[in-house]
Specification:
- The complex is a heterodimer of chains A (303) and B (329).
- Chain A is built from 12 helices and no strands.
- With 303 residues, chain A is an all-alpha fold.
- Chain A has one domain: MetI-like fold, CATH 1.10.3720.
- In chain A, helix 5 packs across helix 11 and helix 10 runs antiparallel to helix 12.
- Chain A is globular.
- Helices cover 74% and strands 1% of the residues of chain B.
- In chain B, strands 1-2 form a two-stranded antiparallel sheet.
- The longest helix of chain B is centred in the C-terminal third of the chain and has 39 residues.
- Classes of the chains: A mainly alpha (303), B mainly alpha (329).
- At the A-B interface, helix 7, helix 10 and helix 12 of A face helix 1, helix 7, helix 10, helix 11 and helix 12 of B.
Amino acid sequence: MKAALARWRDSDVWHSFRRSPTAIVAAVIAALCLFCSLFAPWVAPHNPFDLATLNLEASRLPPAWMDGGHPSHLLGTDDQGRDILSALFYGARISLLVGLASVLLSLVVGVALGLLAGFVGGAVDAFIMRVCDVMLSFPSILVALLIDGVGRAIFPDAHDTLAFGVLIFAIALTGWVQYARTVRGSTLVERQREYVQAARVIGVAPLRIMARHVLPNVMGPVLVLATIQVAAAILTEATLSFLGVGVPPTSPSLGTLIRTGNDTLFSGDWWITIFPGLMLVLIALSVNLLGDWLRDALNPKLQ
Amino acid sequence: MVAFIVRRLVQAVIVMLTVAFLAFMLFQYVGDPVAQMLGQDATQEQREALQRDLGLDQPFPVQFARFVGNAVQGEFGLSLRQGRQVSTLIAERFPATLELSLAAAVIALVVGVPLGVYAALRRGRFGAQAVMTLSLLGVSLPTFLIGILLILVFSVQLQWLPSFGRGETVALFGSTSWTTGLLTLDGWAHLVLPAVTLSVFQLALILRLVRAEMLEVLRTDYIKFARARGLSDRAIHFRHALKNTLVPVITITGLQLGSLIAFAIITETVFQWPGMGFLFIQAVQFADIPVMAAYLCLIALVFVVVNLVVDLLYFVVDPRLRVEKPGGP
């Protein structure tokens, strides 16, 4: 463990991280968001879903620094008296959960299919790549909407967990193409290398070569892609929830919060919408900046 | 060139058939049309009669062929939620989406290309830096958030522009379904915010693309020669450089035209714009399969046609591609 830490501190990636102010700021913001959402029940000042503590008289309070604000509700309250700051943390937790789960799923599917296409080649390769082409010619939000719609049609009275499953599945199915294409490209290169040929000669099974020898060598670009895809997945989830076809309303994500805030926008309660929106943009932007930095740091050509 | 076009056409037909097959599977296996049309207490004979009428007792390929035949004629049956012809519903909504998407595309091009050229020519100066930073924001902000922000500023705070609907519309060509908001002042006022919202992402994308391509081209030898010959900056930048940046710009813009229609779903929901996207979202919420299937086929058609047109435009823009290379393209 200690040796691993020392090796990490000595690595190029750590070095370039320390020299990039953008990356440090982005990492701090992302870590803060991650911390607040992971430990929402302990960090948040109120529990927005505890009906007993909700007070309708304290509804639609403006942020604390404005006239009529209350110090115990730093960012104000929504139309049901829920504390915005606490709802933000709980909402971000759901957004991150859906985002990370769908990225993980699409990564596994995409990497497996990309490895297969690159390593086996022939008709398998051609088929997988044609499917990718068709998927890529449609915007991901449309594909996610369609899968979500079909999921709703198949399970008309889906309860909460199933709705989450459908949503994660829908977002994951739009993301795997990127991984598959990236991994296939690197696999085609790695397949020709001596170490793969050596492994073949001594009779290692193809599946084992793929998993143990090729896979570790194609994971670099995948890591970069996964970082950026987390931001994309969170935004897709927010969009779907905003459109009313995302997470169930009982467990609101950032997109759901923006949606409910949008309904009261005309009464001038801007804080109900703007703060979740700000949180969403902060998460997406910081993750994207981290991804950009990681891409440059892992690219030996740029050093 | 003819071979290329034929091959692209075959590809387009294959994609359309795949999409049609997906839509057909939706009809076939999601939900039971017989139960939906007859209700709970129909007799077995009634069911079988309706199955025969609908052709559900036919073999699978026959049913699929029939579905494609109907789809080509725009026939997708009745909307489960509204009980009206899907084709009528879409025909009513299509003009609104078309108007919105075209307006957004025009804004994105008219603003994006000049700003991109500006950012490339004035690289490193303050103005260009500001443009680039703003464009980064434009790419990162989700569409629905932009819409909400615009509504908050221009409709709620300043109360300059309306925030929902199309406003006053006028029927065109003597039909009841084709309406336009472009002939009334009210219609134009309603169009501003949605069109700007929809255009922001594309605008930022086009801007960044034009800048990158322009910088690339300005480094090439022929530009240096043009300078050496003493041509004016204006002639170099706009006659020689800009022309050569246009090939990738056309591709991306063309491909983005399709995604404009897709992103219109979000914009239409924010502004309650009565277009196809709004219809589609309601269909997804209520699992209205016929509407979803029809929208899927229509969007696929738009994408395939746009891709095809973009491919053909290459030949117009880039003379090098018109030369037939020996041994295939």
